[in-house]
Amino acid sequence: MKIVSTIEQVKNLVNQWKSAGQTIGFVPTMGFLHEGHGSLITSARQQNEKVVVSIFVNPLQFGPTEDYDSYPHDIERDRQICEELGADVIFHPTPEEMYPKDFYTYVDMSGLTEGLCGDSRPGHFRGVCTVVNKLFNIVQPNRAYFGQKDAQQLAIIKQMATDLNMNVEVIGCPIIREEDGLAKSSRNAYLSSEERKAAQIVSKAIFAGEELVKSGEIDAEKIVTTMKNIVDSEPLAKVEYVNVVDGLTLKPVATIKPQTLVAMAVHIGKTRLIDNFIVE
Amino acid sequence: MKIVSTIEQVKNLVNQWKSAGQTIGFVPTMGFLHEGHGSLITSARQQNEKVVVSIFVNPLQFGPTEDYDSYPHDIERDRQICEELGADVIFHPTPEEMYPKDFYTYVDMSGLTEGLCGDSRPGHFRGVCTVVNKLFNIVQPNRAYFGQKDAQQLAIIKQMATDLNMNVEVIGCPIIREEDGLAKSSRNAYLSSEERKAAQIVSKAIFAGEELVKSGEIDAEKIVTTMKNIVDSEPLAKVEYVNVVDGLTLKPVATIKPQTLVAMAVHIGKTRLIDNFIVE
């Protein structure tokens, strides 16, 4: 497995593979890989002849008060994980390689970027769209894999790929959880041991919401109230939002239907965690 | 030569060509083709194995008071021109094919879209970037050809392709002129015969500016004043701007250097004409 840091190196490899008619699976990450990323790499490995993982903490998608500078990293561990899971290449560029001095273009979206995480993270999804657009053009994958945990991100990237007629299939993969239910996230590393215990409340609320839906509840308001009350029972946890929206358009819905997305963001101390479920 | 109207048809053709290792040249147009477009198609024909011409009057790049509804068209004449010049396919989609109901994404730029035509046409270059991005993804050309007449558009598209790591070489081709000097433009069709005579003043000002530079003048202000005075001598003409800018960044410069762009927009009656020259 190779680690390359320049766009030119990736394009050269990709062009060789494409000339040979080989399919490419792509897993874009910000590194500090966990089993959630692992499941994406495994899917990519099963469905494509070549697999590229990118590791890039994208400054463009962090707000000025967010955790860009402290985002966790461990490139050596990431390398081992990618190697074990059968990736062919890690693309690990510098910020300057991705955003040289005279960089002016961005990709943005109306509609789906408002609401949910978009409200508290202005500019975040513009940063996500721009970097993923660039990465798709660099790696030219047949398929790209994203976690369902970042449900809004996944919906937005699917929409971008459709709207801009990009030649890539965007595939969402299920949320991977710790034994106690907490959704795997690189940001879980920020939690103190006390906070880590308290963080269980997030998935508890998610599971309770799911149960309520399975029991036949279709009133979004009631589901939201139940989930908020559960989180509020944990003194270290503070709900940012619990929203019930259409899974594709992300527009709020009052009544649960198949493909409805129930998504939440919760702060545990200084750490912001997100989780969600999709109605079957 | 084929005319196709769906994105799927173009992608199918393009994928066949790419599988066979053939290079693709692309000429995006709004139709009502003239010798300026013709020169682009000819260049594409000489430099690529396959040539695609798109004909699409892009609603997204017209302001609410602009000429979207009256933009001239003659698809049968366009077809003949493309056929004679050896194009392989015309892509002629409907607005609904390019912008279906749930369309949310756009591509925009900071910096280069301000100034020059950007000041009087807010949103214009966002519309241009978005449609060209889509067309590049649909046609997947090796090379795409644009006229130097739309100098700001050319600089912006080059910047977009660079910033987003698009796999296409953007090629600018020289301005083609009528016998009396008027730069070829589909919008010249709007001019009455009296206005058509008056429109000569635009290229006269351009040629005078060029002469001044050739004679050694490097003061941008003096060149602008000379050119404005020439246009002002024509009662039917009204200067919108004469600007001297860096040819790549489009930032104003006070002193002429190689690659400086001298660009102007002039209104003749209700018709807006643009012209420019680049310092060698």
Give an overview in words.
Chains A, B: ATP binds at residues 30-37, 147-150, 176, 184-187. Chains A, B: (R)-pantoate binds at residues 61, 153. Chains A, B: Keywords: ATP-binding, Cytoplasm, Ligase, Nucleotide-binding, Pantothenate biosynthesis. The radius of gyration of chain A is 19 Å and the shape is globular. In chain A, strand 2, helix 2 (35-47) and strand 3 (50-55) form a beta-alpha-beta unit. Chain A is an alpha/beta fold and 280 residues long. The first copy, chain A, is 38% helix and 21% strand. Chain A folds into 2 domains: 2-173, 3-Layer(aba) Sandwich (Rossmann fold); 186-274, Pantoate-beta-alanine ligase, C-terminal domain (Pantoate--beta-alanine Ligase, Chain: A,domain 2), CATH 3.30.1300.10. In chain A, strands 1-4-3-2-6-7 form a 6-stranded parallel sheet, sandwiched between helices. In chain A, helix 6 packs across helix 7 (151-163) and helix 9 (200-214) packs antiparallel against helix 10 (220-232).
> What is the residue-averaged pLDDT of chain A?
97
Total DSSP helices of chain A: 10
Tell me the distance between the termini of chain A: 38 Å
Instruction: Provide the β-strand percentage band of chain A.
Output: 15-25%
Q: What is the subunit organization of this protein?
A: homodimer
Topology:
The structure is a homodimer of 280-residue chains.
Chain A: E1 2-4, H1 7-19, E2 24-29, H2 35-47, E3 50-55, H3 75-84, E4 89-91, H4 95-98, E5 105-109, H5 117-120, H6 124-139, E6 143-147, H7 151-163, E7 169-173, H8 193-198, H9 200-214, H10 220-232, E8 237-246, E9 260-268, E10 271-278
Helix pairs in contact in A: 6-7, 9-10
